[in-house]
Specification:
Strand order of the largest sheet: 2-3-1-4
Number of strands: 4
Structural class: alpha+beta
CATH architecture: 2-Layer Sandwich
CATH topology: Alpha-Beta Plaits
Helix content: 25-40%
Distance between the termini: 57 Å
Largest sheet: 4 strands, antiparallel
Radius of gyration: 14 Å
Number of domains: 1
Shape: globular
Number of helices: 3
Strand content: 15-25%
Length: 97
């Protein structure tokens, strides 16, 4: 029986830390491939990663919202692995009016 290879999303998600300095706050991951064409493998693996994490969704192009730091760090690591040089994670609080 042949073993299946792990996807990039699985490898990234398994290897990021879960510690969260702001556990009660939402996380925004904002990435910019700086005018470069975004590799297809990034979007394919991003969908898989968010499904695997059970956390996070795109609120607009290049902005992902997550509840947990593990998913946020995994998105950041995936983007960097796919060639993104500008990626940041912000802890945010949603305001209700």
């Amino acid at each position: 029986m042949a073993m299946s290879r792990k996807s990039l999303a699985e490898l990234v998600y398994e290897n990021v830390e879960e510690d969260d300095p702001r556990p009660s706050m939402l996380k925004l991951v904002i990435y910019d491939f700086d005018g470069n064409r975004i590799p297809r493998k990034f979007y394919f693996n991003l969908r898989e990663l968010l499904k695997l994490a059970g956390d996070g969704f795109a609120i607009q192009y290049s902005v992902i919202l997550t509840e947990g730091m593990k998913a946020a760090r995994a998105v950041k690591e995936l983007a960097q692995t796919c060639g993104c040089k500008k990626v940041r994670i912000y802890a945010v609080e949603e305001l209700e009016f």
